[in-house]
Amino acid sequence: MSSEDIFKKIVSHAKEYGFIFPSSELYDGLGAVYDYGPNGVELKNNIKQYWWRSMTQMHENIVGVDSAIFMHPKIWKASGHVDAFNDPLIDNKDSKKRYRADVLIEDHIAKIEEKINKEIAKAKKRFGDSFNEEQFLATSERVKGYKQEMETIHQRFADLMNANDLAGLKSLIEELGIVCPISGTRNWTDVRQFNLMFATKMGSVSDDSDTIYLRPETAQGIFVNYLNVQKTNRMKIPFGIAQIGKAFRNEIVARQFIFRMREFEQMEMEFFCRPGTEMDWFNYWKEERMNWHLALGIPKEKYRYHDHEKLAHYANAATDIEFEFPFGFKELEGIHSRTDFDLKRHQEFSGKKIQYFDSEINESYTPYCVETSIGLDRTFLAVFSHAYKEETLSDGQTRTVLNLPKQLAPYKVSVLPLVNKDGLPEMARSIMNDLKFTMRTHYEEKDTIGKRYRRQDAIGTPYCITVDNDSLKDNSVTIRLRDTMQQERVAVDNIKTYIASH
Ligand code: ATP
Questions:
Q1: Same domain for 369 and 261
Q2: N or C, which terminus of the chain has less Cβ within 10 Å?
Q3: How far, in Å, from the CA of 159 to the mean position of ligand 1?
Q4: Helices and strands (H, E) in the chain, number of each type
Q5: Distance CA 111, CA 321 (A)
Q6: Residue 46 CA to ligand 1 centre (angstroms)
Q7: Hey, which of 105, 266, 310, 379 would you mutate to test ligand 1's pocket, going by the most ligand atoms within 8 Å of its Cβ?
Q8: What is the 3-state secondary structure (H, E, C) of 175-203?
Q9: What's the 249 CA to ligand 1 centre distance in angstroms?
Q10: Are residues 361 and 227 in the same domain?
Q11: What is the DSSP letter of 301?
Q12: What angle do CA 306, 310, 311 make, to 5 degrees?
């Protein structure tokens, strides 16, 4: 099955099983806006909690905030978003479709990388066990040619982006022979800059009301609260402030489901440190954040770092953690060393002093900052798409299963009376009522047990507890494991211990 087909299946599975619905579906939807259904909101909340706890509970020097979405319009002037939060867009005159010029070029580079991977796969097949990938990469003329081509395009691309050279970007697209995937033609418009912020008005009288923006990132709500938090919580540098919240971007191209939305959620943490120590903290957070991802049990081959060539106006180092989505490796999280840019700018624009007195060195300074910024919805998509499996069982039947990390699954257990009579529902409910204080529990008595197991597999419930006629006699149940489908008889009193250890 092609990766495109798999992705389509994932999207329809998300809808069919109550994870994600297109927004305003009754009215044919609203571009790149989505709603989370009953199972989706549980999975999403569990991801939030996993992040929040890892930040605020596991680090004594990280505290949280929940700042408002509406903020003073000057904040976005100070942060640089009014002037520079742009994407270069380009239209194809034949299909009338709009693209991001930078994405067209990045996709072109990714295609060359794919060719290299194909060469490796072919050679692996040819040489079998004796294949040495490193040696192959260093000696194959074809691969070396592709690498050279990639590097040349990369360099030109980075230079053009850094110089904000829109005409140059268009020329590069033309030179590379990039065609519109819809019309197949090279009939492009000029490249233009497009600001991604949504604007609205605040105030009841439209004439004197102010234009304000829906925040395009949550980070600024942290920076403008730096002094409040540092003082009220008596924080000592180094310390971090974490926040989870909505962000809004009027994305030019918003196709890939919840990968790129116009309304989405971010989980951001700004870590304030002494100037000169920022590269140590940058490296610390680079590693720490990768460990957070790996602790979910998803194989490390699915992740990679991508160091930035074009640094944002505020950064002196930046890397992305990329994940292999069904449509290839793409950014999941950004880690940026933002220097003292933001605090300095807010100091300048607000006229208020933002300084920290460091008693260890007897000096006042504007703290430097390392940011970790991850999309909640993108993390959802990463976890969900990796978990989606279609399996053929030993008896030839197929099943669809979500092998979600157990701590993230919408329900931890489902309690199922084998039949809907003879006192089994009562016993099942009593087990559920005991478990529900410590874990999210589901109960179902409709349909055959086989069908109920399949449904729980499809929403990723790790444990099914079946109450049968013997249960009434021996006070035991059958626990079925989602991933192996193994079943084991367990005494009711031991259910919690069993679940904790399997
Ligand atoms: P991209 O290059 O994919 O547009 P970005 O570099 O603009 O992303 P950042 O500004 O660094 O993204 O935002 C931090 C994180 O927020 C990203 O790593 C991503 O997970 C998430 N994010 C950004 N834009 C969106 C969006 N439109 N929809 C969903 N998540 C997003």
A1: yes
A2: N
A3: 22
A4: 17, 23
A5: 20
A6: 20
A7: 266
A8: HCCCCCCCCCCCCECCCEEEECCCEEEEC
A9: 9
A10: yes
A11: G
A12: 90
Stated as kind and residue range, the H or E segment containing 388 is strand 388-392
Ligand 1 pocket list (CB less than 6 A): 217, 249, 251, 260-261, 264, 266, 331-334, 373-375, 377-378
Percent of the chain with pLDDT over 70: 98
Confidence tier at 329 by pLDDT (50, 70, 90): very high
Q: Do 387 and 250 have their domain in common?
A: yes
Neighbouring residues of 444: CB distance < 8 A, sequence distance ≥ 6: 414, 415, 416, 452, 455
Candidate from 378, 379, 383, 384 with most ligand 1 atoms within 8 A of CB, to mutate: 378
For 223-232, the pLDDT digits (tens) are 999 999 999 9
Mean of per-residue pLDDT scores for the chain = 94
The residue whose two tokens read 């030993």 is: 394
* Residue of 342, 337, 273, 289 lying closest to 311 (CA atoms): 337
Q: How far is ligand 1, taken at its centre, from the CA of residue 257, in Å?
A: 14
**pLDDT tens column, 373-417:** 999 999 999 999 999 999 999 889 999 999 999 999 999 999 999
State the pLDDT at residue 385.
97
Q: In 17-100, where does DSSP find H-type helix? A: 38-52, 73-78, 81-84
Q: Where are the beta strands (DSSP E) in 308-375?
A: 317-325, 328-339, 356-358, 363-365, 368-375
Domain limits at 352? Answer: 37-74+196-396
Tokens of 228: 């409040």
Distance CA 112, CA 99 (A): 20
Taking the centre of ligand 1 as the mean of its atom positions, its distance from the CA of residue 62, in whole angstroms, is 23
Distance of CA 334 from the midpoint of ligand 1 (Å):
8
Atom of ligand 1 nearest to the CA of 251: 27
Last residue of a domain, one of 169, 195, 221: 195
How many separate domains does the chain show? 3
Structure tokens at 377: 């919805």
How far does residue 196's CA lie from ligand 1's centre (Å)?
A: 12
Run of H or E residues at 441? strand 441-443
- If asked whether residues 127 and 50 sit together in one domain, one would say no
Say whether pLDDT at 130 is over 90. no
DSSP-derived secondary structure letter, 27: G
The residue whose CA has the least distance to atom 11 of ligand 1 is 334
How far is residue 49's CA from residue 409's CA, in Å, rounded to a whole number? 12
Element (H, E) at 36: strand 34-36
Mean pLDDT of the 62-81 span: 96
Q: Which residues contact 300 (CB under 8 A, 6 or more apart)?
A: 294
Judgement on whether residues 164 and 223 belong to the same structural domain of the protein: no
Model pTM score: 0.90
Residue 457: how many other CB atoms lie within 10 Å:
22
